[in-house]
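Propose amino acids for all 469 sites.
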């Protein structure tokens, strides 16, 4: 097996929307110690495990957030959802890592190098810092990722041997050991893994700890770490926490664009589309705002999702500054389910038709976008209606009667007997169920220079009902 470890450094600080151009720190849940900090904070002397009071003394401008483990796990699950397009076996390694089994994916992507490149490119486009490590064992892949031992994958036997040699020469601080384990090795005068492996395994377990021996076996591939594989749910959720409150709706567009990019990837890898987005906005001193954005047709493309949401935002007003935004989708349809039924041109593709209708709905109010729908009533004046597009259901079983004109008069007008008939009669006897019964014989005929649709009622009176082009 081949394992790819994905490390997202400073995941919490990046996911929560912190301004990383400023000194930032992540504190424990009680706010007493620094768990993590960005490079700018480190330049001013702030370090992990430092008391928060000391950190503020060194860096008065330090912006700090307390750890929320539930939110942290949620963000790691989001990364797992994204990584699922690259491997069917994804395992979470909290708080900032993922394991992917990739040997079975080499043929799909062409090579492991191409898979590596695809992941790196997509993560860079999303603005996610990421470190990768590829090895024959899961534990060694994690070390390679954390220590940046690989700039690009070389899944050959020689490359794997070279990676193992780097592991043998690594000092204890590079081996992801606990502080107590590092102190024990220091007392024994052991400076790297190669020296440690010279000891008999029984001595390692007795003089150090059984856990350390198990870890060595995991590095060597003699024992596999316990992995629980991620099972993605068919729902999408993404959120952004704002360090500074967003006071204007345009300020929501940039973080929303990033979230829509994640949604588009989620939909693409599952060959799905959606017709409704739910945006939830939280405010400091106001009730939560809920926005539902509906599309005329299901959509999955990032460019179109962004275009439609931008126009929807222009029609909405923020009741109060926003501190937290969540994008969620719960209803999906298959991408292949769309069929074109555009009447005005057989050359227009289904995608073009849906794009046009979605853009019209984004600009118009729901009452303004309507579709012609057949009702199944034989009476021409009741054979069609104009429902709102969001209420339109094209597969009702009703079919358009060909040979009738598209241009019908609001009410039939009395007319003289036609000079010439082209076809007919078409007899219609209907409406008895609503006490508006009609009995008519329809003809395609000529009245002067006009090609018309006329009928004769049961009183033998002629009426003009429509014109042909």
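Proposal:
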């Amino acid at each position: 097996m081949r394992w790819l470890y994905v490390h997202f450094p400073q995941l919490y600080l990046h996911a929560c929307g912190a301004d990383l151009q400023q000194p930032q720190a992540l504190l424990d849940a009680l706010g007493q110690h620094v768990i993590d900090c960005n490079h700018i904070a480190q330049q001013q002397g702030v370090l992990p495990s430092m008391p928060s009071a000391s950190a503020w003394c060194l860096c008065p401008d330090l912006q700090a957030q307390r750890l929320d483990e539930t939110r942290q796990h949620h963000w790691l699950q989001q990364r797992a959802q994204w990584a699922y397009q690259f491997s069917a076996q994804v395992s979470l390694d909290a708080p900032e890592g993922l394991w992917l089994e990739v040997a079975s994916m080499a043929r799909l992507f062409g090579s492991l190098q191409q898979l590596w490149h695809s992941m790196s490119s997509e993560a860079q486009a999303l603005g996610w810092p990421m470190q990768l490590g590829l090895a024959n064992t899961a534990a060694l892949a994690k070390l390679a990722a954390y220590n940046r031992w690989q700039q690009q994958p070389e899944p050959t036997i020689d490359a794997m041997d070279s990676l193992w040699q780097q592991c043998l020469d690594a000092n204890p601080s590079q081996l992801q050991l606990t502080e107590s384990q590092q102190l024990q090795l220091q007392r024994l005068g052991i400076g790297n893994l190669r020296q440690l492996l010279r000891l008999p395994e029984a001595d390692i377990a007795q003089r150090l700890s059984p856990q350390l021996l198990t870890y060595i076996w995991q590095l060597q591939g003699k024992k596999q770490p316990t992995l629980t594989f991620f099972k993605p749910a068919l729902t999408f959720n993404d959120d952004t926490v704002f360090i500074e409150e967003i006071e204007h709706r345009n300020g929501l567009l940039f973080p929303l664009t990033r979230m829509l990019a994640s949604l588009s990837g989620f939909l693409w890898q599952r060959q799905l589309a959606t017709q409704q987005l739910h945006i939830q906005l939280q405010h400091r001193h106001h009730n939560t705002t809920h926005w539902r954005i509906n599309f005329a047709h299901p959509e999955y493309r990032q460019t179109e999702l962004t275009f439609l949401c931008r126009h929807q935002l222009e029609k909405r007003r923020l009741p109060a500054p926003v501190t937290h935004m969540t994008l969620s989708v719960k209803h999906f349809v298959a991408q292949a389910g769309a069929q074109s039924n555009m009447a005005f041109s057989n050359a227009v593709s289904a995608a073009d038709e849906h794009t046009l209708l979605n853009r019209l709905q984004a600009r118009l109010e729901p009452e303004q976008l309507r579709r012609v729908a057949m009702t199944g009533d034989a009476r021409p004046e009741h054979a069609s209606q104009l429902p709102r597009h969001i209420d339109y259901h094209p597969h009702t079983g009703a079919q358009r009667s060909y040979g009738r004109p598209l241009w019908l008069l609001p009410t039939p007008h009395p007319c003289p007997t036609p000079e010439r008939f082209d076809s007919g009669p078409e007899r219609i006897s209907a409406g008895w169920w609503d006490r508006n019964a009609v009995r008519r014989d329809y003809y395609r005929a000529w009245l002067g220079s006009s090609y018309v649709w006329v009928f004769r009622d049961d009183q033998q009176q002629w009426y003009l009902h429509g014109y042909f082009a």
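The chain has a mean pLDDT of 86. Residues 236-337 form a domain with the Dna Ligase; domain 1 fold (CATH 3.30.1490.100).
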